[in-house]
């Protein structure tokens, strides 16, 4: 029995399948992801998969549970290739197509589907799977490259919405570093401490170090024109 109380072993899941999912998703994003997604791209996806692996190991998840989480992490934002709204539902559809082609059993497919959907918000995350993927989605706030990731996030918001006021960005930063809570034990005990350090460094950082502010207008104009 695993930490979720499940006695099911998903024999159709394997390291090879995870590797095939990785190759499939990276090709899918490379060929189809719209150029405005400079945050939710291949690099972010790889970092999220790394985070899922790191957190699931710390939480002592069974190997097959880690496979579930890794596949969910690879696919959870792929829906952006087709839509900006309700993209997780589209991500689930793309994942299901891949899994069915590889003859993965329905129980495993359903579990990956639920994990992708329920990890979208802290309110919906109820299982260990959901909470681990949720924390992995926000791992970038505690990462050493948080400055670059925040720049990319800010730029992506401008490209998608056309404008971003200083107040809106300030609210987003407050949401990320002050209001947001990690859900797993690992997130609360380890990632949160690293995020605090990053936030302290962010607050000390002079505006001149943020390249986005100097380049924002030309980037957004070139894309939106």
Quick summary:
This protein has helices spanning 15-32, 42-58, 63-75, 87-101, 106-118, 128-137, 146-161, 166-179, 185-204, 211-224. By secondary structure, it is mainly α.
What features would you highlight for this structure?
disordered C terminus; 2 domains; 10 helices; 225 residues; Cyclin A, domain 1; mainly alpha
Question: Could you explain the architecture of this structure?
Answer:
This protein is mainly α. Helices cover 67% and strands 0% of the residues. The protein folds into two domains: 113 residues, Cyclin A, domain 1; 83 residues. Helix 3 crosses helix 6 and helix 7 packs parallel to helix 10. The longest helix is centred in the C-terminal third of the chain and has 20 residues. The radius of gyration is 18 Å and the shape is globular. The termini are far apart.
Q: In terms of topology, how is this protein built?
A:
Elements: H1 15-32, H2 42-58, H3 63-75, H4 87-101, H5 106-118, H6 128-137, H7 146-161, H8 166-179, H9 185-204, H10 211-224
């Amino acid at each position: 029995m695993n930490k979720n109380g499940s006695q099911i072993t998903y024999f159709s899941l394997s390291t090879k399948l995870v590797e095939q999912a990785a190759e499939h998703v990276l090709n899918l994003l490379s060929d189809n992801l719209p150029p405005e997604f400079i945050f939710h791209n291949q690099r972010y996806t790889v970092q999220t998969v790394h985070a899922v692996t790191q957190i699931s190991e710390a939480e002592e998840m069974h190997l097959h549970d880690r496979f579930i989480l890794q596949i969910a992490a690879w696919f959870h934002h792929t829906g952006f290739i087709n839509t900006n709204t309700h993209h997780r539902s589209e991500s689930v559809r793309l994942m299901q197509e891949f899994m069915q082609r590889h003859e993965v059993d329905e129980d495993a497919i359903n579990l990956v589907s639920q994990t992708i959907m329920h990890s979208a918000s802290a309110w919906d995350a109820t299982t260990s799977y959901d909470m681990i993927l949720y924390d992995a989605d926000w791992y970038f706030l505690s990462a050493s490259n948080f400055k670059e990731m925040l720049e990319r996030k800010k730029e992506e918001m401008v490209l998608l919405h056309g404008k971003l006021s200083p107040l809106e960005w300030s609210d987003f930063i407050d949401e990320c570093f002050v209001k947001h809570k990690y859900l797993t034990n690992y997130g609360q005990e380890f990632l949160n401490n690293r995020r605090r350090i990053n936030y302290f460094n962010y607050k000390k950082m002079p505006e001149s170090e943020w390249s986005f502010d100097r380049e924002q207008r030309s980037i957004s104009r070139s894309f939106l024109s």
